[in-house]
Amino acid sequence: MASMWTFALARLAGILIAGLVVGLLFGPIWAWLLAAACLYLGWQLLNLHRLDRWLRLRSQIDPPNLGGIWGDIIGQVVRLHRRKQFHKQRLVQLYRELRRSTAALPDGVIILSSQNEIVWFNRQAARLLGLKRPVDVGLRVDNLIRSPEFVRYLHADDFSIPVVIRPPVHADLYLALQLVPYGAGQFLLLVRDVTRQMRLEATRKDFVANASHELRTPLTVISGYLDTLADDPSIDETWAGPIKDMRAQAQRMNTIISDLLELSRLESTDGEAPREPIDVPALLERLHRDALARPNRPRQVSLDLESEDGLYGSPQEIESAFTNVLVNGLKYTMSDGMVRMRWWTDVEGAYFSVIDSGIGIPAEHIPRLTERFYRVDAGRSRDRGGSGLGLAIVKHALQRHGGWLDVQSTEGKGSTFTCHFPPQRVWQAGLRAVASA
Amino acid sequence: MSHAAQWTAFGAPAPLVRVLLAAKVIIMETADLTHHISRRFNEDLEKVRNQVLQMGGFVEQQLQKAITALVEGDSQLGESVATDDYKVNGMEVSIDEECSRILALRAPAAGDLRVIVAIIKTITDLERIGDEGEKIGYIASQLATMERPADKYREVKHLGRQVAHMVHDALDAFARMDSQAAVRTAQEDRMVDEEYESIHRQCITFMMEDPRTIRRALEIMWIVRALERIGDHAKNICEYVIYMVHGKDIRHTSLEDVAKQIDAAHALARRG
User: Fold this and answer.
1) Residues A313 and A167 reside in one and the same domain
2) Regarding predicted confidence, which is higher, A56 or B232?
């Protein structure tokens, strides 16, 4: 490095000294010195020109063969260029890989800008939603996916639950669309074909509803005959036990079927429950009286009405939910235990609790309690005559009212089931007084 | 003031520099303002275009629901279509007001003016499509109580799909400003007309064969008539798209000529 520069300096000095010597010998020194300097400058300019030409036409001609500093500079440029080329190729390769893998995804992917404009989409998204490349890039996504449900979802704040739409291009498909925010206000729109799931779900609902309905008629006939047989004096005494069992089981089957029908009715009615006013204190007093009239009930069944407020909702669904929560508490409490009902309201809504001193539920089972036919342990609810659907009905009924069920339990000590209702469902006592006046 | 300092360093008199700088500030501000206005205007236009497409999306859904109500004999769905039509009317009124506001405030010219004019016309047709959808929904809820024919309205369903597709493609062409797609969609209207003819004839045959079907066949004729009208409205929307893009009024001219002209224009644009 240093030697190159000393050599270049030495060359300049040599030329100048040569000019000086010739000037001393043949004439005016300044003219010869100037001529030597010009010569040197000209040579450097020529090199500069060749370097420039090569940089311009780099792809077509080989680098000029210049020695000294010029050669070194050219070498450095070549190295820089090679390194850049290498990185570029790696990036391009990476980019292609990414593009290829997203294109091969079975789900549709659309990248949206913060203005909801389409930035990029993969092949599957184009196929499912009928998008076209390249005209659709830069268009607002809600100009092309115009389904009102999707537009509502796009302008909402909560993207956690995907919206299911039926695309007009393929009218027999169901598509689930979900927005995933990322980066600076950008969104990933995932499109998934959920036709199969939706069909299965529909078939399941239909099957449950139809099967329970069809089972009801034969069961009525069987219970009818069993009732007659039980009262028939001509039947041998030894049959009394079996007939009693058969009647109890028929009764149980009847409960299961009505619960199934109730559940499938709740599932098939979409959207929010109606807003009929319900006098909850009166309803609870009635439930309390019914509970006291049960033959083998816990010793103590009490009711604490801490609020005069009622609810806006569907009277049958609320009654069915409250009954199921209460019956659940009564069933799992020994005859020397206690069950307490509580109704109160605050700014965050209304609450109905059933507190029992029963056998309690192990913590790992609590999240799954509201699944249909879920049993904490095999013999537990069957010998108490449950259908296994009670809490599922409660969950669905509450959901339709914007509410939810909260379960607290200590094994061996007892459980607390609380139904929460949002404030907009509360029918305030003041308004009730006006309504009844 | 660093500019001024530099200028005075080169010997220009300070007052002159100050005047020049002030002028520059004014010019820059006005340039900024016009830019600002045009951006706001673009936003307004884009917003109203988006509203039209939202209205279109709702109308599309109404149409689809009405056809489903008929085919599946769902009287509740049919009734909900009929009662929801007021929403379409509301959208038309609000878009109309927005367009008048833009016309009054911004006085758009050339392409922008064409967009506004096309929007005003498009929403009228969309509102009519909504009305026809309401009619179909209402009749479907009536027909749901009657016995359904063995073929479960297969032809009507087919025609309904075709028409729904046309509406969808017309709105897509509107969103993409795609005149070629608009011409293609407008040409589909002929197929819809043929289908309408054939169902019409079929209904007459049914009525002659068995007078008990007359009531149902008459209701079906109302429905296919409504579908055929929707096809016409979709075609109108396509024509507005062409007007919006090329500034050419192609109503009452042969579609083949228009298709040729537009393809030529596109080829020219691609070469240029």
Assistant:
1) no
2) B232
Report the distance separating Cα A126 and Cα B122, nearest Å: 26
> What is the predicted pLDDT for the residue at A380?
60
- CATH code at position A287: 3.30.565.10
Residues of B with Cβ-Cβ distance to A146 under 8 angstroms: 53-54, 56-58, 60, 171
How close is the nearest chain B Cα to the Cα of A266, in Å? Answer: 17
Inter-residue contact B156 to B220 (CB < 8 Å): yes
| pLDDT computed for residue A241 by the predictor | 87
Q: Are residues A162 and A245 in the same domain?
A: no
Same domain, A156 and A79: no
Domain stop point among A193, A225, A240: A193
Which residue among A136, A142, A168 sits closest to B64, beta carbon to beta carbon?
A: A168
Assess whether A94 and A207 both reside in one domain. Answer: no
Q: What are phi and psi of A275, to 5 degrees?
A: -115, 60
pLDDT at residue B52, as a whole number: 94
Residue A166 contacts B where some CB pair is shorter than 8 Å: yes
Put simply, the answer to whether A148 touches B56 (Cβ < 8 Å) is no
Q: What is the mean pLDDT of chain B?
A: 84
Q: Whole-prediction pTM value? A: 0.67
Say if strands A300-305 and A338-346 run parallel, antiparallel, or are unpaired.
Answer: parallel
Whether residues A120 and A83 share a domain: the answer is no
- Report the pLDDT value the prediction gives residue B7, as an integer from 0 to 100: 44
Cα–Cα distance measured from residue A194 to residue B171, given in angstroms and rounded to the nearest whole number: 26
Residues of chain B with Cβ-Cβ distance to A151 below 8 Å are 54, 57
Interface check for B58 against chain A (CB to CB < 8 A): the answer is yes
pLDDT digits (tens, 9 = 90+) for B254-263: 778 888 888 8
Residues 6+ apart with CB under 8 A from B95: B48, B51, B52, B55, B119, B123
- Specify which of A230-234, B5-9, B51-55 reaches the highest per-range mean pLDDT: B51-55
Q: Phi/psi at A74 (nearest 5 deg)?
A: -60, -45
List of residues 6+ apart from B27 with CB closer than 8 A: none
Closest-CA residue of chain A to B157:
A171
pLDDT at position B165 is 92
Residue pLDDT, tens place only, A348-368: 889 999 998 888 888 888 888
Considering A99, A116, A135, which residue would you say is the last residue of a domain? A99
Is pLDDT of B271 > 80? no
Clarify whether residues A65 and A120 are in a common domain.
no
pLDDT number for residue B8: 43
Within this chain, do residues A411 and A289 fall inside the same structural domain, yes or no? Answer: yes
What's phi and psi for A122, nearest 5 deg?
Answer: -95, 175
Note the CATH number of domain B14-271.
1.20.58.220
- Domain limits for position A171: 105-193
Q: Does B164 touch chain A (CB under 8 A)?
A: yes
Q: How many domains does chain A have?
A: 4
A165 and A27, same domain (yes or no) = no
**Which of A132, A146, A152 to mutate: most B Cβ within 10 Å?**
A146
Helix (H, G, I), strand (E, B) or coil at B66: helix
Q: Is B84 part of the contact surface with chain A (CB cutoff 8 Å)? A: no
Q: Are B254 and B183 in contact (CB under 8 A)?
A: no
Q: What is the pLDDT of residue A258?
A: 87
- Residue B61: closest CA among chain A residues belongs to which residue? A147
Residue among A135, A136, A148 minimizing CB distance to B57? A148
CATH number of residue A228's parent domain: 1.10.287.130
Q: How far is the C-alpha of A80 from the C-alpha of A73, rounded, in Å?
A: 11
- Contact status of A246 with chain B (Cβ, < 8 Å): no
CB-count exposure of residue B142 (10 Å: 0-12, 13-18, 19+): middle
Pick B175's closest partner by Cβ from A139, A147, A171: A139
